[in-house]
Input
Amino acid sequence: MPEQMESIELSEFVADCARHEAVDVIVDRRVFQLDQQQMTEFENILNRPVRENPRLQQLLTEKNIFR
Output
């Protein structure tokens, strides 16, 4: 394992760790039990138009320590 660590980029390592953590979280939450009111509210939230967020767009496109 240590020899593998030397051959990968920091960004690749961080992305891989984040991916594994996300899988662990999502696997535990595959089933949501909602009553009709909660389901309607959830669907309304999912169907909302996407809001512009210039700061988020900037963060996602600017160079950082992981790229």
